[in-house]
UniProtKB/TrEMBL annotation:
Membrane topology according to the record: Multi-pass membrane protein
Transmembrane parts of this sequence: 104-122, 142-162
Protein name: DUF202 domain-containing protein
Highest taxon above the source species: Eukaryota
The species this protein was found in: Rhizophlyctis rosea
Length: 182
Protein backbone atom coordinates (compact mmCIF):
# COMPACT_ATOMS: atom_id res chain seq x y z
CA UNK A 1 0.00 0.00 0.00
CA UNK A 2 1.60 3.30 -1.05
CA UNK A 3 2.19 6.01 1.52
CA UNK A 4 -0.22 8.94 1.31
CA UNK A 5 0.16 12.19 3.19
CA UNK A 6 -3.53 12.09 4.06
CA UNK A 7 -2.65 9.17 6.38
CA UNK A 8 -0.75 11.64 8.56
CA UNK A 9 -3.96 13.49 9.49
CA UNK A 10 -6.18 10.43 9.90
CA UNK A 11 -4.60 8.37 12.66
CA UNK A 12 -5.15 4.66 13.04
CA UNK A 13 -7.46 3.92 15.96
CA UNK A 14 -5.94 1.32 18.23
CA UNK A 15 -7.61 -0.57 21.06
CA UNK A 16 -6.40 0.70 24.42
CA UNK A 17 -5.03 -2.57 25.76
CA UNK A 18 -2.45 -2.69 28.50
CA UNK A 19 -0.37 0.48 28.06
CA UNK A 20 -1.01 1.23 24.37
CA UNK A 21 -2.23 4.79 24.81
CA UNK A 22 0.45 5.58 27.39
CA UNK A 23 3.20 4.25 25.09
CA UNK A 24 2.00 6.27 22.10
CA UNK A 25 1.64 9.44 24.18
CA UNK A 26 5.18 8.93 25.49
CA UNK A 27 6.35 8.57 21.87
CA UNK A 28 4.67 11.89 21.03
CA UNK A 29 6.29 13.62 24.01
CA UNK A 30 9.68 12.28 22.94
CA UNK A 31 9.11 13.58 19.42
CA UNK A 32 8.20 17.01 20.79
CA UNK A 33 11.41 17.01 22.85
CA UNK A 34 13.45 16.22 19.72
CA UNK A 35 11.59 18.96 17.83
CA UNK A 36 12.18 21.50 20.62
CA UNK A 37 15.89 20.63 20.71
CA UNK A 38 16.21 20.90 16.92
CA UNK A 39 14.41 24.23 16.81
CA UNK A 40 16.63 25.47 19.66
CA UNK A 41 19.74 24.67 17.62
CA UNK A 42 18.26 26.40 14.55
CA UNK A 43 17.40 29.48 16.66
CA UNK A 44 20.89 29.56 18.14
CA UNK A 45 22.41 29.39 14.65
CA UNK A 46 20.29 32.29 13.43
CA UNK A 47 21.17 34.31 16.56
CA UNK A 48 24.89 33.67 16.07
CA UNK A 49 24.67 34.85 12.46
CA UNK A 50 22.93 38.06 13.53
CA UNK A 51 25.42 38.58 16.38
CA UNK A 52 28.34 38.28 13.95
CA UNK A 53 26.83 41.04 11.81
CA UNK A 54 26.23 43.15 14.93
CA UNK A 55 29.88 42.70 16.02
CA UNK A 56 31.18 43.90 12.65
CA UNK A 57 28.78 46.87 12.70
CA UNK A 58 29.85 47.85 16.23
CA UNK A 59 33.53 47.63 15.27
CA UNK A 60 33.00 49.86 12.25
CA UNK A 61 30.97 52.35 14.30
CA UNK A 62 33.61 52.51 17.03
CA UNK A 63 36.44 53.11 14.55
CA UNK A 64 34.43 55.76 12.67
CA UNK A 65 33.57 57.50 15.94
CA UNK A 66 37.21 57.46 17.07
CA UNK A 67 38.44 58.79 13.72
CA UNK A 68 35.88 61.60 13.68
CA UNK A 69 36.81 62.54 17.27
CA UNK A 70 40.51 62.68 16.32
CA UNK A 71 39.86 64.80 13.25
CA UNK A 72 37.68 67.18 15.27
CA UNK A 73 40.34 67.44 17.97
CA UNK A 74 43.11 68.06 15.46
CA UNK A 75 41.00 70.72 13.71
CA UNK A 76 40.42 72.43 17.05
CA UNK A 77 44.09 72.21 18.00
CA UNK A 78 45.25 73.66 14.67
CA UNK A 79 42.89 76.61 15.02
CA UNK A 80 44.09 77.33 18.56
CA UNK A 81 47.77 76.99 17.58
CA UNK A 82 48.71 74.50 20.30
CA UNK A 83 51.98 72.64 20.29
CA UNK A 84 50.32 69.32 19.54
CA UNK A 85 50.52 68.70 15.77
CA UNK A 86 49.21 65.16 15.68
CA UNK A 87 47.11 63.02 17.96
CA UNK A 88 47.79 59.31 18.37
CA UNK A 89 45.57 56.87 16.49
CA UNK A 90 42.95 55.06 18.53
CA UNK A 91 43.89 51.59 19.75
CA UNK A 92 42.37 48.76 17.73
CA UNK A 93 39.27 47.25 19.27
CA UNK A 94 39.16 43.50 19.84
CA UNK A 95 36.60 41.88 17.54
CA UNK A 96 33.46 40.64 19.28
CA UNK A 97 32.95 37.80 16.83
CA UNK A 98 34.67 37.49 13.51
CA UNK A 99 32.08 37.34 10.77
CA UNK A 100 33.63 34.19 9.25
CA UNK A 101 33.60 32.37 12.60
CA UNK A 102 30.03 33.46 13.25
CA UNK A 103 28.93 32.17 9.86
CA UNK A 104 30.60 28.78 10.39
CA UNK A 105 29.00 28.43 13.82
CA UNK A 106 25.61 29.52 12.46
CA UNK A 107 25.72 27.01 9.61
CA UNK A 108 26.82 24.29 12.03
CA UNK A 109 23.97 24.93 14.46
CA UNK A 110 21.29 25.32 11.77
CA UNK A 111 22.49 22.09 10.11
CA UNK A 112 22.56 20.29 13.45
CA UNK A 113 19.05 21.55 14.23
CA UNK A 114 17.77 20.22 10.91
CA UNK A 115 19.45 16.87 11.54
CA UNK A 116 17.90 16.63 15.01
CA UNK A 117 14.45 17.45 13.58
CA UNK A 118 14.88 14.81 10.88
CA UNK A 119 16.09 12.21 13.39
CA UNK A 120 13.18 12.95 15.74
CA UNK A 121 10.65 12.62 12.93
CA UNK A 122 12.11 9.33 11.66
CA UNK A 123 12.35 8.01 15.21
CA UNK A 124 8.72 8.95 15.95
CA UNK A 125 7.29 7.12 12.95
CA UNK A 126 9.51 4.04 13.34
CA UNK A 127 8.62 3.79 17.05
CA UNK A 128 4.93 4.21 16.23
CA UNK A 129 5.11 1.33 13.73
CA UNK A 130 6.93 -0.87 16.24
CA UNK A 131 4.46 -0.08 19.01
CA UNK A 132 1.61 -1.02 16.70
CA UNK A 133 3.36 -4.38 16.12
CA UNK A 134 3.89 -4.82 19.90
CA UNK A 135 7.66 -4.27 19.57
CA UNK A 136 10.12 -1.73 20.91
CA UNK A 137 13.72 -0.84 20.05
CA UNK A 138 15.63 1.62 22.23
CA UNK A 139 17.32 4.52 20.47
CA UNK A 140 21.02 3.90 20.94
CA UNK A 141 22.42 5.20 17.64
CA UNK A 142 20.63 8.56 17.75
CA UNK A 143 21.58 9.19 21.36
CA UNK A 144 25.22 8.25 20.72
CA UNK A 145 25.35 10.52 17.66
CA UNK A 146 23.82 13.43 19.57
CA UNK A 147 26.31 12.96 22.42
CA UNK A 148 29.26 12.90 19.99
CA UNK A 149 28.11 15.98 18.09
CA UNK A 150 27.29 17.88 21.29
CA UNK A 151 30.69 16.97 22.74
CA UNK A 152 32.40 18.21 19.59
CA UNK A 153 30.46 21.48 19.70
CA UNK A 154 31.28 21.88 23.39
CA UNK A 155 35.01 21.36 22.77
CA UNK A 156 34.91 23.72 19.78
CA UNK A 157 33.14 26.37 21.83
CA UNK A 158 35.56 25.95 24.71
CA UNK A 159 38.52 26.28 22.33
CA UNK A 160 36.96 29.39 20.78
CA UNK A 161 36.37 31.05 24.15
CA UNK A 162 39.81 30.22 25.54
CA UNK A 163 41.82 31.11 22.43
CA UNK A 164 40.07 34.37 21.48
CA UNK A 165 41.90 37.43 22.80
CA UNK A 166 39.86 39.16 25.46
CA UNK A 167 39.24 39.30 29.18
CA UNK A 168 38.34 35.63 29.69
CA UNK A 169 40.93 33.73 27.65
CA UNK A 170 44.25 32.00 27.94
CA UNK A 171 45.82 34.98 26.15
CA UNK A 172 44.64 37.31 28.93
CA UNK A 173 46.02 34.97 31.61
CA UNK A 174 49.36 34.80 29.80
CA UNK A 175 49.54 38.61 29.54
CA UNK A 176 48.73 39.03 33.22
CA UNK A 177 50.88 36.28 34.72
CA UNK A 178 53.53 35.66 32.11
CA UNK A 179 53.68 32.61 29.86
CA UNK A 180 51.88 29.54 31.16
CA UNK A 181 54.23 26.70 32.01
CA UNK A 182 57.30 28.80 32.98
Amino acid sequence: MPFRFSNLWRPTVLPNLDSTARDHLANERTFLAWARTGLGFVGLGVALEKFAHLGVALENFAHLSAESAISAASAASSSSNTASDTLPAPPPLPPLVKQQDGRVAAITFVGLGGAVLAHGTIRYYSTMQRLMNKQFAPSTGGVALLVLVSSGLTLGGLYSVLMTPGHFSLHAVEREHGKVGH
